[in-house]
Amino acid sequence: MPTSTPQTERAATRPATENLLEVSGLEKHFPITRGAFIRRTVGAVRAVDGLDFTVRTGETLGVVGESGCGKSTTGRLVTRLLEPTGGKITFEGRDITHMSVRQMRELRRDVQMIFQDPYSSLNPRHTVGTIVGAPLRIQNIPTPKGQKRAVQDLLELVGLNPEHYNRYPHEFSGGQRQRIGIARALALRPKLIVCDEPVSALDVSIQAQVVNLLDDLQRELNLTYMFIAHDLSVVKHISDRVAVMYLGKMVELAPRDALYATPMHPYTLALLSAVPVPDPSRRDKAQRERVLLTGDVPSPIDPPSGCRFRTRCWKAQDKCAQEVPPFVELAPGHRVACHFPVTDAERTPQGRMAAQHAAAEVPPDTAAEPAL
Amino acid sequence: MTLGPVTSSTDVATPAGEETPTIADGKKIEGRSLGRIAWMRLKRDKLAMAGGGFIIFLILVAILAPLINKVLGHPVNEYHQDKIDPNLGGIPPVGTWGGISKDFLLGVQPVTGRDLFSQIIYGAQTSLLIALLATLLAVVIGIVVGVTAGYYGGWVDSLFSRFMDLILAFPLILFAIALISVLPPTKGFRIAVMVLIIGGFSWPYIGRIVRGQALSLREREFVEAARSVGAGSFRIIFRELLPNLAAPILVYSTLIIPSNILFEAALSFLGVGVPPPTPSWGRLLSDAVDYYEYDPMYMLIPGLAIFVTVLAFNLFGDGLRDALDPKSNR
Ligand SMILES: Nc1ncnc2c1ncn2[C@@H]1O[C@H](COP(=O)(O)OP(=O)(O)O)[C@@H](O)[C@H]1O
Ligand code: SF4
Ligand SMILES: [Mg+2]
């Protein structure tokens, strides 16, 4: 397993020990209602359904999963843009689970968010100066050298021309807009930043620049990140630990190198084999060993019983439909929710080929099987 | 055991060529707001500019009516019996074009011989005053209700939306006639009641637009971003939503002004507008119906005044909409 230099550096400079954020049993069920005046609740979208994880001071926790698995909802719960319907969120030892909007005002300084869509996240009617300065005004942050200067310093920090203070968002490219969003998030000097797919909407050529910027800023400003992405390749460079989500639940959480080298959850294995391979000489082999999942992600309104991944899992057995697999530590710091974790043999090329065949043969209608 | 694809995907860190900035340095640094871009587009729209020009002209005429009338007209209620042809029963004015002459620019009223020019320019005052005040009222109510419904959503939205449907389904003209005809016919009171009725029933047009826009805007991430730095609802509505609503509000206000002008004219035509002797285009028109055989010009002139005014507001409103709509590429 070759380890590149930035990874070693990362490990050395981060004594990540304390927990900045602790989440337990976190749930968000969006009610589904019918009727205009008399609203009846007819069900719920179980967007986030019982998450346990921590984010340590100074680290980057990567959170990965397919679209719709509840990543954004998790981010919005942690930043308390949404109120949890269950569970507990502790930030720096304070319970913030049900804090009111007023109580949250102060906490906003410490927890910030970078949004996915660089077009919708900036108000088209405001100048860059207004956008980046808004947090300072709203929170009454003193700016000794004047607010304009403070904003220009922030623009410079994220690699934008401070002279563009009076420009409007539509005059910038996607990558530049995302930098504006980063500057806004940094304005309050937060401790934790939730980055919700900050590069997913950007050109591949620009993604690396923005990720590198975030990486540099983290070192410079001692930031802690929760970095959300929908595939494992994006978070690999920046994460210390990586969590994999599936249908509102966390299925695996491990130190970065452990997760990429020895994935234990079948879903993680499948995601990993889907990571694009830049090296052409390896690409063919990777293609051949790719574990493609059949079927669609089931609906979060009516998730499968037991293990939620069982309708697409090639290792599924009766137990998987009957018992919810507990999220347990199988190796130091490596937690997995699976009754039959991936074994070493399955991670060999032969094992992966076998998995590939097995995965392709999972009947697509298992989802329809009656829950036991 | 190594996972082939995984290890090799590590170092995408090599910076991919510098991102081409949209903004070339060295150009002038002042940002181009969407408003300025819209203005540049509007300037290219000849019809809209003509409409806008006429609107400004009309507003000036209405404001300066007393001054203009002193120079070019005669006192509003001055009778000029000498301008009426006694040979034809004392009804039509002297001359072929309804008595149009150097002295009476738009001719005179049949029977009384009052100056039609002064009637028209003071009529513009009445018409614009009522239509603009009613529009202002409609815009204020429309914004408050629309933003509230759109921003809060849920049952608040359902309630306000049904209420707007209800008002739009109301038999307004009948209601207006019934109400106004039982109220005392003093000028100020009539004007106030007309403004209340016209404005009070046209606001749902604004309200619906604002609601729809607010509903989609509140889902935009910049609203969430504002909330995430600690902005309250008040600030979000006024600083984040309203600036984005300004364009549609402006467009739809411009577009309900002409219908409010027509409404005022219709009420006056039906005899429940501002009471005489205050001049009004609608009343001139209804007056003219009795004389159209003798003096068609008397009908044509107030009719044209209403038509051109309504057309000008519509042309300008449409041009404004095109200029402000980012999807129109003119
Ligand atoms: N405000 C909401 N109301 C109802 N359902 C929602 C809401 N927000 C998200 N969801 C649902 O919750 C699930 C998870 O959404 P999200 O957290 O946005 O996923 P991701 O960010 O991983 O793509 C989806 O099924 C989505 O439709
Ligand atoms: S618990 Fe069963 S179904 Fe779920 S991932 Fe593990 S083996 Fe597959
Ligand atoms: Mg998302």
Automatic annotation (TrEMBL), chain A:
Keywords: ATP-binding, Nucleotide-binding, Transport. GO terms for molecular function: ATP binding. Residues 348-372 are annotated as: Disordered. CDD domains: ABC_NikE_OppD_transporters. InterPro entries: AAA+_ATPase (IPR003593), ABC_transp_ATP-bind (IPR050319), ABC_transporter-like_ATP-bd (IPR003439), ABC_transporter-like_CS (IPR017871), Oligopep_ABC_C (IPR013563), P-loop_NTPase (IPR027417). Residues 33-272 form the ABC transporter domain. Belongs to the ABC transporter superfamily. This is Dipeptide ABC transporter ATP-binding protein. It comes from Planosporangium thailandense.
TrEMBL record, chain B:
SUPFAM superfamilies: MetI-like. It is found in: Cell membrane. The chain crosses the membrane at residues 47-68, 128-151, 163-183, 189-210, 249-276, 296-317. Its main location: membrane. It is a multi-pass membrane protein. Residues 124-317 form the ABC transmembrane type-1 domain. Residues 1-12 have a biased composition (Polar residues). Keywords: Cell membrane, Membrane, Transmembrane, Transmembrane helix, Transport. Residues 1-25 are annotated as: Disordered. InterPro entries: BP-dependent_transpt_permease (IPR050366), MetI-like (IPR000515), MetI-like_sf (IPR035906), OppC_N (IPR025966). Belongs to the binding-protein-dependent transport system permease family. PANTHER family: D,D-DIPEPTIDE TRANSPORT SYSTEM PERMEASE PROTEIN DDPC-RELATED, OLIGOPEPTIDE TRANSPORT SYSTEM PERMEASE PROTEIN APPC. This is ABC transporter permease. It comes from Planosporangium thailandense.
